[in-house]
Amino acid sequence: MTSRNSRQNGNRAAGEQVDPLGPIRSPRDPDCDVFLTGTVFLDIIFTGLDSAPVRGTESWARGMGSSPGGVANMATALARLGLHTSLAAAFGDDHYGEYCWDALEQGEGIDLAMSRRIPGWHSPVTVSMAYEGERTMVSHGHEAPPGAASDPIPDCPPRARAAIASLAPGRREEWVAAAARRGARVFADVGWDESGRWDLAALDLDHCEAFLPNAAEAVRYTGADCPRAAARALAERVPIAVVTMGAQGSYAVDGRTGESAEVPAIEVEALDPTGAGDVYVAGFVTGTLAGWPLADRLAFAGLTAALSVQEFGGSLSAPGWPEVAHWWHALRARPGGVPEELRHYGFLEDLVPGDAAAAAEEARRAVRRRAVPTIGFRHSA
C-alpha cells in the first residue's frame, strides 16, 4: 500500500498532464496499462425528458448527444485518467464506425492496434433516454462476422498491468486467463442475468483480482440480505469485492487482509447516468494500479462517476484530471472549507495542481470532446 508522500506528484503547473502511475513506472513496465475488449456502440442519448415515452405519442427531448458507447465508455474513462489503454473491438466500415474509431484513437489516444474494421458490417447502435435519474435503452446490432481476420479478441492479449473483463454466466473467456498468465491484474464487472438463475459458480472469477457488481447483482448472486453482506460473501471468492450502491455510495472488502471500506456517494444533479458504472470501474482500477488505500480508491471512483453524470453520453462524459482538480479546489474554496463529510477526499491534494486559479484555468482550457447532437459537421464552424 502506497503512502501519500510516496505517491505525491508535486506541485505541477496548469496544463501538465497528471500521470497517476508516474511514481511507480519503470523501463521494464509493459507499454499497456490496461487492456480491454468488447462491443463498441454508437450511442444516441436523449435527455431532458419529463417522463418515459408514452405509446402512440411523440416526445420531444430538450437535449441530445452522440458518442461512442459500450466498451468505449470504460476505455475513454481510463485514457482520460492518464492510463495507457489498449482496446480490441470490431468497428463497422460505415460512417458511425469511422466516427467511433476517430473519436477513440485520435480524440482520446486509445491504442486500437488490436481492433479491426469489418467490411460490410454496420455499427451497433443504442438509443438511450434519460429521465427521472435513470435511463431506458433500445439497441440494435449484429455479431461481427466470424473469422480470424475479423475477430476482435486476440489469441494472445498484450502484456499489460491490468485487464478488464465483463463476465457472463456460463461463459469463459480464454483471453482472460491468458492475460492473467502474462501478469495482468484482472478486474471484472457483470451484467444482469436474464436467465434469472443468478448462479455465482457459473461466473469465471478464477483469475479476477477484483469483482465490481452493483448492489442488486451482488445480492442476487450471493443470496445475502444486504449489499454489505454480499460484498463479504464475494470476498471469499475474489481478493477484492466492491459493491456499488447508487445513492448510498459503495462498499468494499479485501478478502486477503480483512480490510473493509465504505464511502458515501457525492450528491450531484444528474443529466445523464449512461456509463457511470463504467467510469466508476475506471476510477477504481486507476487507484488500485497506483497503490492507493482501499478507501481512497472507492472515493476516487465515486467522484469520477459523479462528475460523469453531469455531462451527456457514456464515454465523452468521462472526466479527466482538469475536471477532478477543479472540483477539489472549488470544494476547498467554499466558505468554511471542505465539509466534514468530504474530508476523506484530502488525498487529492497531492495529485492535482496546487491552487484554485490554476485548476479553474486548466479545466476551462481542457480540449475535451463532448457528446453533441450529431456525429460530425461537413465544415468546421
Q: Give the biggest sheet.
A: 8 strands, mixed
What series of H and E elements makes up the topology? EEEHEEHEEEEHEEHHEEEHHHH
Unreliable parts: 1-15
Read across the widest sheet, the strand sequence of neighbours is: 4-1-9-10-11-12-13-14
**Helical stretch tally:** 9
Account of the protein in words:
This protein is α/β, with parallel strands linked by helices. Helices cover 26% and strands 20% of the residues. The protein is built from nine helices and 14 strands. The chain has helices spanning 71-80, 95-108, 174-181, 215-222, 227-234, 276-290, 294-308, 321-332, 356-365, and strands at residues 32-37, 40-47, 63-70, 85-88, 90-92, 116-118, 125-131, 134-140, 160-167, 185-190, 208-211, 240-244, 250-254, 260-263. Strands 4-1-9-10-11-12-13-14 form an eight-stranded mixed beta sheet, sandwiched between helices. A hairpin with a 5-residue loop joins strand 13 (250-254) and strand 14. It starts with 31 loop residues before the first strand and ends in a 16-residue tail after the last helix. The model is unreliable at 1-15 (pLDDT under 50).
